[in-house]
Amino acid sequence: MCTLEKRGDLFILTLTGDTKKDQEHRLSPHLISSIRSALAQVKSQAVNGSALVTLAQGRFFSNGFDLRHAQAVGVKSGSTQAAVAELLRMVDLFKGVVADLLSLPMPTIAAVTGHAAAAGLILAMSHDYVMMTSSRGVMYMSELDIGMTLPDYFTALIRGKVGSAGARRELVLLARWAKVGAARAAEMGIVDSAHGTAEEVVDAAMRMGEELGKRRWSGEAYAEIRKALYPEVCGLLGLKDATVLPSKL
């Protein structure tokens, strides 16, 4: 589901999959739990100078919530309400991933080398920096196409991360009609940089992680300053502010 590698103070979280279906990296309860477990490990081993790079194997960064899993729960129980309840459970569980990333005591970088849709795009946007390949992959919010409203913390994160009202409208009110490539995503402020190939994206993300790590910033201060930038979504996620002062004055 995911692996965690450590190179010096740089953590590399990789979404993995043995089959084509698995490599869509749909956010099932199991994958969400696996990501949270890896992020907990990252946090426990963090030092001043740590950084995180998240990437994924295959054609997808993440294809959003695992709707097939929710449907299977409904079929098994013979109730559509059970499927709805399972989807809502995934929405609630995923809040923990977003909260973990927004409170992680280090810079975070998403290396998007494939499609990032719906909750998969929110996963990428929960990082401090997003890099994307222009050779393959698009970003989009598909909720409108399936007749689903956006969870409140999705909307708050988008408002906090995408500065232009027009860009936000394009992203969420055109759904699949607004499949955004790397160049347009950079114009909209969703992506920080676009690169020609998947390998170039990963290399650039690794270099950025290493360079940011060299600053040896206080991880605790970094996390608190980040949270202060996004008060709306952090409030919805239940993340509390804390004051951090220099250890030596």
Which key features would you list for this structure?
3-stranded parallel beta sheet; 2-enoyl-CoA Hydratase, Chain A, domain 1; 249 residues; alpha/beta; 6-stranded mixed beta sheet; Delta(3)-Delta(2)-enoyl-CoA isomerase
Structural commentary:
It is a single chain. This protein is α/β, with parallel strands linked by helices and 249 residues long. It has a single domain (2-236), classed as Alpha-Beta Complex (2-enoyl-CoA Hydratase, Chain A, domain 1). Helix content is 49%, strand content 16%. It has 11 helices and 9 strands. It has helices spanning 29-45, 67-77, 80-102, 119-125, 143-146, 152-161, 165-173, 182-188, 198-213, 219-229, 231-236, and strands spanning 2-7, 10-15, 51-56, 60-62, 108-112, 115-117, 129-133, 139-140, 193-195. Strands 1-2-3-5-7-9 form a 6-stranded mixed beta sheet, sandwiched between helices. Helix 1 (29-45) packs parallel to helix 3 and helix 2 (67-77) runs antiparallel to helix 3 (80-102). The longest helix has 23 residues, at 80-102. The protein is globular, with a radius of gyration of 18 Å. This is Delta(3)-Delta(2)-enoyl-CoA isomerase. Pfam families: ECH_1. One of its GO terms (biological process) is fatty acid beta-oxidation. Pathway: Lipid metabolism; fatty acid beta-oxidation. It catalyses: a (3Z)-enoyl-CoA = a 4-saturated (2E)-enoyl-CoA; a (3E)-enoyl-CoA = a 4-saturated (2E)-enoyl-CoA.
